[in-house]
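Ribose-phosphate diphosphokinase: structure tokens wanted.
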Amino acid sequence: MARYTGVYGFPESAQAAQGLADALGIPCHIAELHRFPDGESLVRLPQPVERAIVYRSLDQPNDKLVELTLAASVLRRQGATELCLVAPYMAYMRQDAVFKPGEPVSQTVIGDWLGRCFDRFVCVEPHLHRTHSLDEVFVGRPSRALTGAGPIVERLRADGVPADTVVIGPDEEAAPLVEAVAGPLGLTGIVGRKERRGDRDVTVALPFDAPLAGRPAVIVDDVISSGETIFSCARAARGLGAASLRVFGVHALFGEAIAARFEAEGLGRPLSGDGVPHPTNALPLAGMIADAIRSFERE
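Answer:
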């Protein structure tokens, strides 16, 4: 018997929620949302589910966190005995320490909050830095932190990626993603060094001896938001002689103005995973998320 008996999605991610339900062979239900004039949310889940997967990415997270809490309360009241949150993009993970006096450790706050609502968690590239695993965030709750490399590898393989392609990560944090993309394809991988002076003031330096001259390159990163990291990395790659550039991001958070800059910078259209709904979605995540959920059944 399958561990879970239904998937609950939300209107903005209904297609991805249905894709996950199809991959698992279980029903999908979409929550009804209403926003009152003062900004309060009303969540309606008319279909009871015994053991539910709740699917929602936490980009633009503040309203969504409240709505997830309300949804979990409804499912519990309706008799759900187990709730698994699938949040392909998990918010508030970067602030894992007090960097300046007076700041919160947001990761701990959100981990405790959601840990009170859900029994298990699945996330994709959850932007952990000094934290080694999601188990440290959601204490006592089985969790899976998935790499977004698999769908990128599948797309590059399907596209017939040239054997001399170089996979580039803009900084040390991208090193695991670079290795997970380059390794299965037998490609060379390199990692840059990023100097960040602000959210939109970033410089990426690549190794001076990086073997890029005359070779195609693929830039990979977990999150693309302002685009500045990618633009700087692309300029550095071209400075070392890269013949062509493609860009893949696991999560795309940028708007139309940044998309236009990608075109202006000669980078074309980045390709992203479909965890966060975005015009650049081209990499389906449902298959690997379904595999992670099935792994819970073996525990």
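The first helix runs from residue 14 to 24. The mean pLDDT is 93.

Cheers.
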